[in-house]
Amino acid sequence: MKKKEHDIYEELEKAVLTGPNAFFGHLLRELAAAYSLDGVAFFEPDLKKSLLGLKLRYKHGLVFEHEENIRLDQASPLGQAILRGRSHAARLPGMHHLYIPFSLEGQAGVPGPQRSGVIRAERLHGKRGFRDRERQGAQTMVRNLVRHYYRAEYAELSRRHERGMAAVAELTEIFATSIRVRESFKHILTGVQKYFGFDRVRLYLIDKGANKLKGEYSADIRGQVKSISYDEIPLEPGAHRFADIVLGKSTGAFMDRYRECVLYLPLVVQGSTIGLLIVDNILSQHKIDPADLSMLKSFAGQIALAVDNVKLFDKVEELSLHDELTRLPLRRYFMQRFQEEFYRAERSRKPMALAWIDLDYFKEINDTYGHQIGDKVLKEVGRVILGNLRKIDFPCRYGGDEILILLPETGAFDARKLCERLAAEIRDLKIPVPFSRNRELQVSLSVGISVFPHDASSTEELLRKADEALYKVKSGGRGSIMLFDEKAAEAAPDAK
Amino acid sequence: MKIWILSDYDSRKHLAVKNLLARFHAEYPEHKSDFEVLSRRSLWDALFAHLRDPKNSPAADLMELPQSWIPLFSKLGLLSDLGDTGPAARYPDFIRRGCLPAEGGSVYAMPWWVEIICLHYRADSLKKVSKDPEADLASWEGLLDVCGRLKAACRKKDYYPLENSNPSGAVSAADVLPCVWSRGGDLFSEGFSRCAVTRAETVRGMEDYLGLAAKEYMPLFEENFHESGFLSSGLSDLVFSGRLPIQVKAVGRGAQMRPVPYPSFGKPVSPCFVNSLALCSGAAGQEGPAALLKWLLDSRQSRYFSNAFGAFPCHRQPLEDALDATRHGAMYRKLLENARLRPGVTAYPTCELLLDAALAGAALRSAERDYDGEDLRRELIKIQGEIDYLLSIY
Predict the structure, then answer these.
(1) Residue at which a domain ends, from B295, B310, B340
(2) Interface ipTM
(3) CB within 8 A of B179, min separation 6: which ones?
(4) Which of A57, A66, A93 sits opposite B233 (nearest CB)?
């Protein structure tokens, strides 16, 4: 039994909301049912390539996508139908075809470029051909149905608009709050990747001191972020296309071919380029949507500002937490980490050592050679310490010439070995003193070590015991290393 | 549960899926399913849309994918590890080698059906121009010669000796690949460390294939009135295809198709293209899709399915049965000894996509009598750079 017009339009409503493909799928189904067709096909012109593309087919009760491109022969039945702008029936080997061209031109409010197309109704040979009445009826049905097409486009447009609005709101929030920590780079990258849906987003920042463009992070299609700090590009013309883009000297030659799936976004703050954001769809080869492109461009200023804020914050934080001279963390920062590491050691039941270091006769060095030489000594000692520690170790300039080193997962034996190595390396330092008789200065250390859990059960106690061990060293003539309790080296699990 | 099936532009395949699902629902009424037929391009777009925005672009629970896409999408975390999939010995050696991981490796997809690419010819038509078609069509030179003779002998308007096996009407990477292999070329270097699309043999292989259109032996961008193309209309007598049997009933009862191996340049080549089934890792419930996957891969179902549209099943025994059922089983068995599958490298699908675009452009220019080999070579240099870059990061 043939469907009533009311039912056809009710189902059309659902298809309209799903999008353009569902709309045409519905049209093919209805046409096949109304005119007992063996197959129906939908063609759409590709104006850029001057081809007519077969996009959808209906057969055996199923709608399926097709990709067939046809160069239009004006003498063919298909060409005739398009040329005359009205339906055209043709008998071909084994088939009866009816071509029904339609245009969406003139439809009020159809967004985007005007669309048109052709429907090909198919009946197998042996069945009757298409009579005039059928031809006209089918043409009217197609034209009545496609009148509703603009709503499918609107539904699609509305979905994209909603997505865009959500992106604007969330990205603005991300950029506005991205000043707290360096992790913000990751948030910015994943924000851009997620809301614009790129295969990959990479951030490079200019290191003016080193005259380099340095890789920071890369976010992939799964939103996973990884460091690309290994990627360093000399900031010289011709060294790399990224350098040329940042320096404003890109010829654009590389981008010509792939410009539709790679976008370079120089980050500029107050007229000065601070870095480069590169987004690409190289893996998927999806062209970057012009709407996304302009939105991203409008966001470029905000992204640049957010990145610059993060950099500034990082610099301020670095200055507030680290000693400028020795590059070692300051006491306040140390005490916070000390507490955290102590809890971790308690929880994991792993040992932890604390070394309290004093530079021997530092006051005398300052008094004799001046503060400039004293500062030089501190700087060199800081360099040696930072160069000899593991990532998990945490040193600090506790005050004046006193340095603390927290050694997580380390017992008395290993702590002493490390301090011996530091003392030896510092003893080998030769600090040039131009106006002295020896022309150079040597420095020695006194070190007191306490160990958790052997010597103490709290941070305060561990500090006190290390200080007491140091006091013993200093009382005994300086220049050596002492554990608070020598038995700790025997009892410690690492004492081998 | 939602299922995505590749269109492959063959309604016999879609009908077979529809029938199979009806049978599955009868056996397992608790598992409701719906399937959608997508073109390769749409499937590719849908998978990336899902990766970018899983919430607003849900993927199907079960999907058919070209085997060459599996390494990429498993790496991107889109596919479920299928766990224990049974003994690998169920598969013939060439499938096991090309589609399944080494022992202990994760399995993300199961081979479903395979195309064994051959040259099919209409025996009744070729009788008029060749005394021994099998010998004449053994080499590329021989193919060109036969095409020339067929073209000269036929007075039909719009006659092309060789049907364009690409339903899009253009030329794609999949079309030129057998020719490239036969020339001794490849898309990747050994070990897949570099892209090799600019290698002389590779370029020659592509140009040999495009040359078929330039000589007007093969149509480009022509309207296909029938699903099985120009052969059905009697407007072609040869076609490269991986499926059997080709329908030529429309042009008369005497029409008879026969397969011969892919014409070679001295090095015989047996291209085989596999499509697999995979489960989406983001599927809400894995029980139904996993049950359907297992059921579809059962020998009985896979035999029915591949036979419905002339392809071959991937399991050893059903494949043997299918080969026994053709009159050319011995030839196919020999071909399978040297079967060559698309490589399992992450950058391969993108490489194919870029090549498709470059070759479609070349085909369009060829159809407009504006083809210049230099344009293609320039494109290939850019593709090589792009793929080398992808190889370095993925």
Answers:
(1) B340
(2) 0.89
(3) B140, B205, B206, B208, B209
(4) A93
